[in-house]
Design a protein that fits this description.
heterotetramer; A: mainly beta; OB fold (Dihydrolipoamide Acetyltransferase, E2P); 8-stranded antiparallel β-barrel; 4-stranded antiparallel sheet; C: 504 residues; alpha+beta; Rossmann fold; Dna Ligase, domain 1; D-amino Acid Aminotransferase, Chain A, domain 1; 8-stranded antiparallel sheet; 5-stranded parallel sheet; 23% strand; globular; biotin (chains A, B)
Amino acid sequence: MRYFAKLQGQKEAVPVDIEPAGENRFKLTHNGKTFLVDALALDHGAVSMLVDGTSYSVEFDEQGDEVQVSVRGQVTRIDVADERRLRLRAATAGFSVEGKQVISAPMPGKVVKVLVKQGDEVKEGQGLVVIEAMKMENELKSPKAGKVVELPAKEGTAVEINAKLVVVE
Amino acid sequence: MRYFAKLQGQKEAVPVDIEPAGENRFKLTHNGKTFLVDALALDHGAVSMLVDGTSYSVEFDEQGDEVQVSVRGQVTRIDVADERRLRLRAATAGFSVEGKQVISAPMPGKVVKVLVKQGDEVKEGQGLVVIEAMKMENELKSPKAGKVVELPAKEGTAVEINAKLVVVE
Amino acid sequence: MAKIRKILVANRGEIAVRVMRTCKELGIATVAVYSEADRSALHVRTADQAFLVGPPPSRESYLVQERILEAAKKAGADAIHPGYGFLSENASFVRACEKAGITFIGPPASAMDAMGEKTRARQNMIKAGVPVVPGTAEPIATVEEARAYAEKIGVPVMLKAAGGGGGKGMRKVERMEDFESSWRAAKSEAMNAFGNDAVYIEKYLEKPHHVEIQVFADQYGNTIHLNERECSAQRRHQKVVEETPSPILTPELRAKMGEVAVKAAKAVGYVGAGTVEFLVDVHRNFYFLEMNTRLQVEHPVTEWVTGLDLVAWQIKVAEGEKLPYTEAPTPNGHSIEVRVYAEDPARNFMPSPGRINYLRVPGGPYLRDDSGVFPGYTVPNTYDPMISKLSVWAPTRREAIERAKRALAEYVVKGITTNVRYLKGILSHPEFVEGDYDTSFLTREHETLLGKGEDPQLTEASLLASVVYAYQRDQKKAKTLTQAPSEGGKGGISAWRLASRRGR
Amino acid sequence: MAKIRKILVANRGEIAVRVMRTCKELGIATVAVYSEADRSALHVRTADQAFLVGPPPSRESYLVQERILEAAKKAGADAIHPGYGFLSENASFVRACEKAGITFIGPPASAMDAMGEKTRARQNMIKAGVPVVPGTAEPIATVEEARAYAEKIGVPVMLKAAGGGGGKGMRKVERMEDFESSWRAAKSEAMNAFGNDAVYIEKYLEKPHHVEIQVFADQYGNTIHLNERECSAQRRHQKVVEETPSPILTPELRAKMGEVAVKAAKAVGYVGAGTVEFLVDVHRNFYFLEMNTRLQVEHPVTEWVTGLDLVAWQIKVAEGEKLPYTEAPTPNGHSIEVRVYAEDPARNFMPSPGRINYLRVPGGPYLRDDSGVFPGYTVPNTYDPMISKLSVWAPTRREAIERAKRALAEYVVKGITTNVRYLKGILSHPEFVEGDYDTSFLTREHETLLGKGEDPQLTEASLLASVVYAYQRDQKKAKTLTQAPSEGGKGGISAWRLASRRGR
């Protein structure tokens, strides 16, 4: 079976083929190389993986919209899909970074300042909204140059995690 | 609503009345006394309970056939049922300790010795079967005087937790 | 010399739990107070009694003196331990405790008055002959005056809250253009943190080290110091890593600073645990910065190298016992503390409150985890993001660094983002390892500390593991779907996402 | 003096993890071996590499020398750390390592030969002028001979496995009627544990204390002792609580026993970490019992009061370094270790393997948890039931006891039964607190230690909480039932049971 894995910061998802090869064992082919992997899924999103005798204690953690993968202190953000879903996502732009950008609350908190108005032209990296949580103020910046097309954020209101604050197009 | 709570070692279940009294608050009546309890259920079977300002960090743990309740280092085994279930259990003798007694494996292990034969008369406290687990041998004793009416235990075999080993009647 | 039998801990989080641990060991009953946001908190569960003191904002709960005292009376507590922050440096609260006949575990109100307002403290220290950082002697009333003063002494300057410490209400101004916004930010933070928006100005020393001396005094005028802590690893004036001994102190400088710290404490009639903070410049001149009239977050490193329990000492001093030592014990070995924050260093240290789905703390020799959380706990977004302090001990600094790195590698927190990896970055940085890092270190080396460098072998392992994980979950899901076709409706959610939700 | 770069740890559980922790701090790569029952074990996840060595029974995996050596070669390990138990005291394995060119971290085979068979050890010690417990000089061939000897010296006698320690293959015989069954049991346990069923007989001393001396020797004949450990809190000859200093030792007796222990080690050309065990009778005479030619389970208490890392020392000595000290450091403060077992003291210490659903280990000052488990781990039923060791330090014994009790109160393990409450019972018992407890203490005071006494207030709180818990879950279930009527079919299961399953 073929999966596509996309590392954060990379444009393209890379194909990885996987076949079962016995109890907790898998044959994986990636980038022309084939690996025989002994991968035991443990509770709470942990996987003990042995590749050619090398031991990797892997921890998966989903937070908000991301899956973080930790191995020996290195944290990588990886998205994985099979072929059908890859097509699906391509269609809905889920796998892409182009188009409309929704800026949502990265944590529960309070909107202490809205720095733009509906219809404003903004530059990439320009501050849009300031959220306060845990006594710290955090400025959310525009991921791209564009125009503020939606602005649900209101100063002084409490917001939940992932609440839509600004849409830049 | 009325519940019946039975402490291990006690013959009778005692009635306790409970009524909701606001968020995480309950009015409980037990033994003629009424308590206003602030009880917050946490994950993993923990309850933070405040009664008149006294704080009890309660931990529930179900193991095999029992629910253990720990508060400040004291462990109590308690069974709770509502009225309908209490009647039900009385009918099926679930709440009683009389009648047929099934001796089952208290842990996964290996049957290293069977000390009785089918049809044997046994005394209360007489050894029936020896199980080995974690390098320790453990003798299971008869909970009552009676006769061995079933004997599924076989020497040298591995058994799972709760596997039926002997029935004494 | 009345024995204390019940202590109300007027705090939350790790410090409340830490104080209660010592109380338990001493056979003293404990009382917690909590806000509505903290009903599920560990300190409520740890205490023998617990009382609600108000809604989430500190100003309406943990900072309301009457509510705290009311809880103390209801519980029959004979003493209050304030922890750090909140009311710990509030002289009016000390007076209110006195009036209510409850022992305040800390210095007398007079010592707090003398040291609490930083500007007054500076004046007192100048009088006592303690060297201070050049700056204004008083809080400044208006932004115009402040601006004028800053222009006079020249940037960079530090704006500082007169009413409290801990990095709150503090701003460094490097360019006059930023003066007004920094002024406003400092005042607003100060008001939030201490209920007092007075701000004063100090000259900013270049490349200073933050070195502080732990002092202890009993009620009979015996005052000693317990050596120093090096706290130069700061970010936004918030300490991140602390250690003792300081790698830059010679025994002579230690003795000199200790002596001055004791002099400072004696000058204000100090009693209990306190910390005299100094800035040490490149020429190893040192200047009084402020005195924290309470227990510090970083007290565990001092405990590690002295074998003492500072909280137990605080209680004994409050009971009227004499100090058991007459001079500083020689530090034994080396200790390092790192602060674990619920924040994401890669996103400008954005706070990360939320539910801790899984938690595994490090174990093994010579390490200590002081935590205010537990698996299944939801870290509220109302308070400080520090969730735990990890400290280690070893015979030498080099070994302590390796031990701390090993311990951090064992830390697993899921559900929220923490700075654990960033902390490892600090401990691995050559400047830290070498030992001569000043307060600009963390800001200056920010990019390096984030550790963007990836090990391709680990990246590949992560990728393979992710595919196996997705595959196994898809297989499991396929099985479930066959058994329960009604779930097919959820096809819209990516299997990956769904899978990892189930993995919890 | 070749630096060791990669160590295979020929063990499992907490000790494998503990050794790897030190390796990590020293920058040494680690290799785990595991049986089929241990695929999910913590030591496999902690190591850099891991190799399967066979099916669950130790005799087919952890005790198979060729498999261990094969894994070491495959991994390119240059040294093997044996931990305790398994192959740690097997001289033939040491020789096999030598032959394979792999450093064995432990004493030379010759020292093991001299001390490994306990009967040979006794002969060697008598030669060296070390006092020994009266008994046979050789293992006894037949049960008849054994019986005759026991009759001659008179019961009580101890039957002991010649091939190993740790309480395995050991039986006390009080009445001659029990002699034969005890003999068989000792031989069979010995065979299981050490692959050697040789058993000998010792006179049983009345009310003896078990006090052992930690020794350390480098490759150059420098041999020192690191003071004693009191290990009289034993059950079935298995240590449960250990402490240092021993509450019954005077400085003079400590010095005398230390001297004898060093003499014993020197007599056999010892190298590395070892422990000389003594029985101390009511008159404070002491007798050599045996020498454990390896690291002990209870080494953390020695580490606490000396500040050393004994595993690091073992590695350095194996690399050819000299000992950094020439005599025993004066013990600093007091340390107590308790062993957390997966067993139910209320049911005759029945083992309790199974899944650990929830785990919260204690934190705060001066405590240490050495664990081989994690939340979500299933403790297999194949091996020793010890899942963790909790140790504490304090300036005095009294404070150490209170700290250990406080720490135990914080320990939460769900899914399996542990002896945590029983351990608290030991620490609270007046005989333990007073300090003069002998090896009969735990057996003699068994009923008291189980702590049958209940606090009615806590019983009432438990009852109320249980009803709330049942009620809340029933309410939740009722809601679910309304939403998904198909679940109604499960009505046969009690709501309580069902509820708590969901609570996980």
